[in-house]
């Protein structure tokens, strides 16, 4: 296929995706017509302009394809302006976002989405279900960061949108980047082929010193404070078992090729106890029980000055494996003999690979990526883990999925109050196992 034929196919692909935005599914023979652009440019919109959003845009614009950033949206003008400056300095010819295509506030996302072929959804995760639903409704291909939701109602919305995205043949890539990392791909390929037999147990970890804190500023409304300090509020973040440890939990589900039927565990606030840390726990330890009886142990914590560990290890009936984002993917047989070792040295950056593969597929008119359902179920595994540690109960998957416990505010405006508010001392209610009800 020559370059002109490739451009024509890509234009038809993008046009067809847009035509189904009204909810009418086109059959495979309806991929006809031209792209709105007269060249082969793929137009992208950035929704969420913080550090991770700016990074995602950087990676998208670093692909081989002819991309142009044409719209940006963020709740905060200062974050949007900072992101715009960084991106326009680095990609002078690929950033075309005049003032009238920079949307500030809670409702700008839909306007930005409408201007693009592909959208990057990189806001705090509490907004992800709403933004993903809108992107699919408008017929756009999507890159979205993990996690994709923070509660059961959000997961249900993402699952529904994921099914519609399949019908519309919209590519969706989710930023669980280990799925795009060579040592994981090569090791899992061998596990799936039976190299270490059936997986009967495992351990996954994200133990670290924690992340940033944004101090409360004078004259901030409660909504702005929580939005700025979003990591510590569940309606925005989901707790660090969801926002961060989901990476390792996703590997557990990948290795098992299944999702847990029940989860139980324990957690608390032992180190990060002050008012700056909102409502979330600083440690979680849960057991993921699968339908075949296998149990995988999951641990995450945010303690400074303690041993860090971020990796995954699993035991099979014929051997075991060790995986890590920064180390090799290794397999041993039942006698301890190493049978495979894939080094990370020389591997491509998986954050970049996500975008390279997504935009290559779009440029070729291929429907190749359907990450949303799988990612939603791994995120829900982490959410159930939070339900289990907060309540102290054994939580069953099917029961949790039916829960109608939306954490999202009833109204989005700077003077509206989130559902969780501080007391007179500035402290937030903390979940108490045995008392807190989650579903």
TrEMBL record:
GO molecular function: nucleotide binding
InterPro entries registered for this protein in UniProt: Gfo/Idh/MocA-like_OxRdtase_N, Gfo/Idh/MocA_oxidrdct_glycsds, GFO_IDH_MocA-like_dom, NAD(P)-bd_dom_sf, TAT_signal
Source organism superkingdom: Bacteria
Start and end residues of each Gfo/Idh/MocA-like oxidoreductase N-terminal domain: 42-166
Residue ranges annotated for the GFO/IDH/MocA-like oxidoreductase domain, each copy included: 185-320
Any Pfam family the entry gives: GFO_IDH_MocA_C3
Identification of the protein by name: Gfo/Idh/MocA family oxidoreductase
């Amino acid at each position: 296929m020559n370059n002109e034929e490739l451009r024509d196919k890509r234009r038809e692909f993008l046009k067809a995706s847009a035509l189904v935005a009204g909810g009418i599914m086109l059959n495979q023979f309806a991929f006809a017509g031209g792209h709105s652009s007269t060249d082969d440019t793929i137009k992208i919109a950035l929704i969420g302009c913080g550090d991770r959003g700016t990074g995602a845009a950087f990676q998208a614009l670093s692909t081989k394809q002819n991309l142009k950033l044409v719209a940006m949206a963020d709740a905060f003008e200062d974050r949007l302006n900072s992101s715009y400056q960084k991106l326009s300095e680095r990609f002078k010819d690929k950033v075309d976002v005049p003032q009238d295509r920079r949307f500030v506030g809670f409702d700008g996302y839909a306007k930005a989405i409408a201007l693009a072929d592909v959208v990057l959804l990189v806001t705090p995760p509490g907004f992800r279900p709403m933004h993903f639903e809108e992107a699919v409704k408008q017929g756009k291909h999507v890159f979205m960061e993990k996690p994709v939701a923070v509660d059961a109602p959000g997961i249900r919305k993402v699952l529904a949108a994921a099914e519609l995205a399949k019908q519309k043949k919209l590519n969706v890539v989710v930023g669980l980047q280990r799925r795009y990392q060579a040592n994981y791909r090569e090791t899992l390929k061998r596990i799936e082929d039976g190299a270490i037999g059936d997986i009967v147990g495992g351990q996954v970890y994200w133990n670290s010193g924690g992340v940033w804190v944004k101090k409360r500023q004078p004259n901030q409304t409660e909504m702005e404070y929580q939005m700025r300090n979003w990591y510590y509020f569940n309606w925005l973040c989901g707790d660090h078992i969801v926002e961060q440890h989901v990476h390792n939990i996703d590997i557990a589900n990948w290795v098992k090729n299944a999702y847990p039927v029940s989860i139980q565990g324990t957690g608390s606030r032992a180190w990060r106890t002050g008012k700056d840390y909102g409502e979330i726990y600083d440690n979680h330890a849960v057991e993921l029980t699968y339908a075949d009886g296998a149990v995988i142990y999951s641990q995450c914590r945010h303690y400074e000055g303690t041993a860090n560990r971020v990796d995954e290890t699993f035991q099979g009936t014929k051997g075991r494996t060790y995986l890590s984002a920064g180390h090799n993917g290794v397999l041993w047989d039942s006698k301890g003999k190493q049978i495979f070792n894939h080094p990370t040295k020389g591997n491509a950056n998986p954050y970049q690979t996500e975008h390279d593969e997504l935009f290559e597929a779009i440029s070729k008119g291929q429907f190749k990526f359907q990450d949303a359902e799988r990612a939603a179920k791994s995120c829900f595994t982490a959410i159930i883990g939070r339900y289990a540690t907060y309540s102290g109960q054994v939580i069953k998957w099917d029961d949790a999925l039916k829960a109608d416990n939306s954490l999202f505010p009833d109204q989005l405006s700077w003077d509206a109050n989130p559902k969780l508010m501080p007391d007179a001392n500035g402290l937030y209610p903390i979940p108490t196992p045995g008392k807190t009800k989650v579903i």
